[in-house]
Each structure stands twice: as C-alpha cells, then as structure tokens.
C-alpha cells in the first residue's frame, strides 16, 4: 500500500506521546450484515448477492496536506453557530441525533404500530450495514486524524479513538436520509439538511477532513439507495407493494431548537488529546431575538448574514476548489432539476384521507442554511 498518508495506528494525537493503543471496535468490519452480504473474499454484495462497486475514493488519491489546511482554517474561523453544530452532532454516538428524528416522523404521520416497526428496522438495519462497511474501510486503510498531522491542533471536541476515513457520522447520516426519505418523501429536503449538517459538523469540530465527510455522505447515500431498491421489491400476498410512502406534508418538527440535545445525557468530558478550552456547559449558549450571541466569555457579538458569508474568507478559495473537485456533495446545484429520492419512489399513492383531515393547519418548513453561503 502507498505511504502517501499517515497511519492512524502509527502517530500520536496532538497532546499525546504515543500512537493510540485503544482502537474502538476494530473488528466491527467483519460483523453480521442485515441487507447486504459478503463473499469469501470479503467483498460487499447487494441483497441479490451481486458485488457492489462502492463509490468512495481510495486514500492514495487524496491530498491530505491540502485537506489539513482546510481543517486548520476552519478551526481558526469557526463562529458560535459552527461550534454549537460541532458539539450538538458530536455528542454521543452517530445515531444519537437520528433516533429522535425517526420517532418524530412516526408520530407526526400517525404511522401504525407494525409499519412503525418496519420503518425502524429498515433504517436501523441499513445504518448497521453502513457502519460495518465504514469500519471495514476505516481499519483497512488506517488513515490518520487531522490532529495527527498537526500536533498543535486544538479541536472543538475530543477526537474519536478510531481511524478517520470515511466519517461514520456522515455515512450513517447519508444512509438515514435516503431510507427515511423513501418512507416520508415530502420531508426529504429537511432530512437532507439534517444529514449535511451532521456531516459538516465533523469539519467544524476539527476531528475529520472535509473529504471524510463528503465521501462518507456519498457512500451512505449509495447504501441507502441499495436498501430502498430492495424494499421496493417486497410484496404483500396479493402482490401489491408493502410500502405506501406518505405523500402528504405534515412538516414534522425534528430540527433541534438552538442545537439543544433531544435526549440530554451527562457524558464524561475527559479527553487526552488537545481540545479548545470552552465553557463546560454548552447549553448556556443562546441567541436572542435580535440575533446577538451571548455567553459568559464575551459581552456581545453580532451574528448576521454577512458573518456567515465571510466566515471562511481565509480559505474560501480552497473550499470552493474542494467542492468543485468532489462533486459538490454539500451543494447540490441540480437539486431543483433532479426529483431526488422522491422521483425514485413507485407511483403508488398513500391515500389516508382520515389522517390528513386532522392536519389541515400546516406550518411553513424550517429555513435552511445555504452551504454555498457558508463556504
């Protein structure tokens, strides 16, 4: 294998003296799959048993030194919103923020008990398979974290104790987005925003390179589509499709209010690698109605649209080049032209008039950050 990139198992984290000797679930890449399969050579197969050509760039073809510059510049220029994003999605395991999303969708659309179980199985089993694929790649390629390239780096959150590429948060988010959008197509735009926020949070945190996230999103979305294509083949005894996606829009509210945790938990805050010194209680961060950010470190800092547009002035050109090189995973310029996931769903309509009559007063969807403006 090429020696173009540093190995996670060979280099200490920033602030540490020895390479990491505590790998997390290093054998998970060989665990049992649910929808996907594996042949004797270790190749991953789709549910039909056909070898998949997974869409991910080999790390030999990645310029990690250029990627590192983007991470360094991002950490220098993070604003309070980016910091809160990093902490919100980085608190707990990758699935922590998605579980409440699934529950809120099930509740909002009045899903029946058995069908709710099917949706939970589909999403979680697809995520299981995605994470197994990701862990197989992580330990096979053994790519170092950003703070192993820069031993002075102080990250926003503690750097996880396993290899970097690809990102588990980004991969499972891309998969969850696609599978949930199959069942709830009218929520696809919000689900996409949630997945992209989760992915980019790892860059804001300084624990992943940008390409870890974009390639992770792409990989997760691919596996999600493989699972959805399999679900579409499943039939009732009368040969009608089992799934009838919910076509009406009930605007399920699963976007966190000011990055407050859906399920708070007092996680241990010990970390042996370098982390930026911040207030222990991130929940004290809040925005007032006039968009002024207040905390007990500073008096007041105005956070307006110009701040978001200019936050990456130092590395805007590098990030634009990066986005263009990697197919603009964060910026889908053809989103309006494509029918996205909704266009791939069978034309069978979900015709539940009794439920829809009780949801006549619909609110406008939440506004979304435009990653083009951020970058």
From TrEMBL:
PANTHER family: PEROXIDASE-RELATED, PHOSPHATIDIC ACID PHOSPHATASE TYPE 2_HALOPEROXIDASE DOMAIN-CONTAINING PROTEIN. Gene3D superfamilies: 1.10.606.20. This is Phosphatase PAP2 family protein. Residues 332-356 have a biased composition (Basic and acidic residues). InterPro entries: PAP2/HPO (IPR000326), PAP2/HPO_sf (IPR036938), V-haloperoxidase (IPR052559). Pfam families: PAP2. Residues 278-299, 330-369 are annotated as: Disordered. CDD domains: PAP2_haloperoxidase. Residues 131-228 form the Phosphatidic acid phosphatase type 2/haloperoxidase domain.
């Amino acid at each position: 294998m090429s020696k173009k990139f540093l190995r996670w198992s060979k280099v200490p984290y920033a602030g540490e003296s020895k390479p990491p000797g505590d790998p997390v679930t290093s054998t998970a890449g060989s665990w049992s799959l649910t929808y996907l399969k594996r042949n004797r050579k270790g190749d991953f197969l789709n549910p039909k048993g056909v070898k998949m050509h997974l869409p991910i760039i080999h790390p030999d073809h990645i310029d990690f030194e250029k990627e590192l510059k983007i991470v360094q510049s991002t950490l220098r220029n993070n604003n309070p919103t980016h910091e809160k994003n990093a902490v919100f999605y980085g608190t707990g395991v990758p699935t922590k923020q998605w579980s409440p999303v699934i529950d809120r969708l099930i509740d909002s659309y009045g899903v029946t008990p058995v069908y709710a179980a099917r949706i939970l199985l589909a999403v979680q089993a697809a995520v299981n398979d995605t994470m197994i694929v990701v862990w197989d790649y992580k330990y096979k390629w053994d790519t170092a974290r950003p703070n192993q390239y820069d031993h002075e780096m102080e990250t926003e959150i503690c750097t996880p104790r396993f290899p970097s590429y690809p990102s588990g948060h980004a991969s499972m988010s891309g998969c969850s987005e696609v599978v949930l959008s199959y069942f709830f197509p009218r929520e696809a735009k919000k689900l996409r925003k949630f997945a992209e926020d989760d992915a980019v949070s790892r860059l804001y945190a300084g624990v992943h390179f940008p390409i870890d996230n974009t390639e992770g999103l792409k990989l997760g979305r691919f596996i999600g589509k493989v699972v959805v294509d399999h679900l579409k083949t499943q039939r009732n005894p009368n040969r009608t499709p089992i799934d009838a996606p919910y076509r009406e829009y009930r605007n399920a509210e699963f976007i966190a209010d000011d990055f407050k945790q859906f399920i708070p938990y007092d996680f241990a805050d010990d970390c042996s690698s370098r982390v930026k010194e911040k207030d222990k209680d991130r929940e004290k961060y809040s925005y007032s109605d006039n968009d002024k950010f207040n905390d007990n470190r500073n008096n007041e800092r105005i956070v307006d649209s110009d701040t978001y547009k200019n936050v990456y002035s130092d590395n805007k050109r590098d990030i634009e080049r990066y986005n263009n090189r990697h197919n603009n995973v964060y910026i889908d310029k053809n989103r309006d032209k494509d029918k996205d996931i909704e266009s791939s769903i069978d034309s069978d309509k979900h015709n539940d008039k009794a439920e829809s009559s009780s949801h006549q007063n619909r609110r406008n969807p939440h506004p979304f950050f435009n990653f083009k403006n951020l970058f």
